[in-house]
């Protein structure tokens, strides 16, 4: 992806400032506008009834519960890789919650602010088992399907260059087009985030015929994003994510939240707004904001288990996304 010019960056920064007051706009319209994928099982995908479900969807629901006291007060806008940033910059959506990697360019030149990382991922490769390929170092001379405007496009170019290999990229704007092209045999290799490959393999014609190679070629810290220029809205999204993670750390679940609110430790009572030291005014909400966010779908671990974990079709291991005290690197900043 090309860097924006200084003039364009300044213009976008100005747009972000002009759009400050996101919370007031949300309250006036009565819902949050959430930018999601065009369909990635486990993350954001419409079910048979047409309702959006998934890990990223539940992040937006938690924010809506915190701000509007209604987790269902969300409208979803499916966006391609190339559409997503313009949609956020222009105010078409209030938040991107769609498997988006935090990078220097996006955090600065594109005028985005990223909330905490909700999924530590990495890029990989998928091939047909019949190809006999077992390592990414055997991909010299292959054709590779990749999403245009994604970090995957740059990463794959860097990987092949670094390993003195050649390849032919086959680019598409929409994720469904990339999947369809690979599934139809128009390219030898499909590259994306490992979570995305696992999700999209589920909807291929013959999932068992495809395997993911062992190499992980990048760091892909996926996080919700909002516009520059509205610190109040950024704070709410940021600390809602931290509240979900803190709840798992403290053993607060959707099922026990009422009991924990009454009988929990000082840290629990502070998180849930039942202590004398409330946190609501610090984020411009009432003291029950975190209670509502957690009750909407559960803590971070519950969201993971419901949409991504071993009892789901994706069967993803948490890995780095485990809590810091359980072998991972995920933890909340202190809520105090």
Task: Please characterize this protein's 3D structure.
- The chain is an alpha/beta fold.
- The chain has 14 helices and 14 strands.
- Strands 10-9-11-8-12 form a 5-stranded mixed sheet, with helices on both faces.
- Strand 2 and strand 3 form a beta hairpin.
- It starts with 5 loop residues before the first helix and ends in a 29-residue tail after the last helix.
- The relative contact order is 0.16.
Which tags fit this structure?
3-stranded parallel sheet, single chain, 14 strands, alpha/beta
Rg of Cα set: 20 Å
What fraction of the residues are assigned to beta strands by DSSP?
A: 15-25%
Strand order of the largest sheet: 10-9-11-8-12
Distance between the termini: 40 Å
The ordered string of helix (H) and strand (E) elements is: HHEEEHEHEHEEEEHEHEHEEEHHHHHH
Largest sheet: 5 strands, mixed
Query: Helical amount among residues, as a percent range?
Result: 25-40%
What would the average pLDDT be, to the nearest integer?
92
- Give a count of the beta strands, DSSP E runs of length 2 or more: 14
Shape: globular
Poorly predicted ranges: 1-19
Structural class: alpha/beta
Number of separate helices: 14
How would you summarize what this structure contains?
With 336 residues, the protein is of the alpha/beta class. The chain has helices spanning 6-18, 22-29, 55-68, 84-90, 104-107, 151-162, 175-183, 194-201, 231-250, 257-263, 266-272, 280-283, 289-297, 300-307; strands at 32-36, 45-46, 52-53, 74-78, 95-96, 112-114, 119-121, 123-128, 142-147, 167-172, 189-193, 210-212, 220-222, 225-227.
């Amino acid at each position: 992806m090309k860097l924006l010019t200084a003039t364009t960056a300044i213009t976008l920064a100005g747009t972000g400032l002009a759009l400050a007051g996101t919370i007031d706009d949300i309250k006036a319209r009565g819902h949050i506008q959430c930018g999601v994928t065009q369909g990635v099982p486990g993350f954001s995908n419409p079910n048979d009834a047409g309702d959006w479900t998934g890990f990223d969807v539940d992040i937006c629901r938690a924010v809506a519960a915190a701000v509007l006291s209604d987790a269902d007060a969300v409208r979803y806008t499916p966006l391609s890789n190339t559409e997503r940033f313009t949609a956020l910059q222009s105010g078409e959506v209030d938040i991107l919650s769609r498997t988006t990697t935090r990078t220097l360019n996006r955090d600065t030149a594109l005028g985005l602010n990223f909330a905490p990382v909700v999924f530590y991922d990495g890029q990989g490769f998928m091939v047909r088992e019949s190809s006999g390929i077992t390592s990414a170092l055997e991909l010299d001379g292959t054709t590779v399907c990749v999403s245009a405007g994604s970090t995957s496009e740059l990463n794959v170019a860097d990987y092949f260059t670094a390993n003195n290999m050649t390849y032919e990229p086959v680019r598409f704007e929409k994720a469904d087009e990339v999947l369809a092209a690979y599934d139809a045999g128009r390219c030898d290799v499909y590259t994306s985030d490992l979570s995305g490959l696992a999700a999209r393999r589920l909807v291929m014609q013959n999932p068992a015929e495809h395997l993911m190679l062992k190499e992980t070629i990048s760091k892909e810290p996926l996080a919700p994003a909002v516009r520059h220029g509205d610190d109040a809205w950024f704070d709410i999204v940021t600390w809602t994510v931290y509240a979900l993670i803190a709840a798992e750390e403290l053993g607060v679940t959707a099922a026990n939240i009422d009991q924990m609110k009454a009988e929990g430790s000082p840290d629990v009572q502070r998180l849930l707004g039942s202590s004398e030291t409330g946190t609501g005014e610090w984020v411009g909400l009432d003291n029950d904001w975190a209670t509502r966010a957690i009750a909407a779908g559960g803590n971070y671990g519950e969201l993971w288990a419901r949409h991504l974990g071993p009892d789901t079709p994706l069967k993803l291991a948490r890995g780095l996304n485990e809590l810091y005290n359980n072998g991972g690197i995920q933890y909340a900043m202190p809520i105090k």
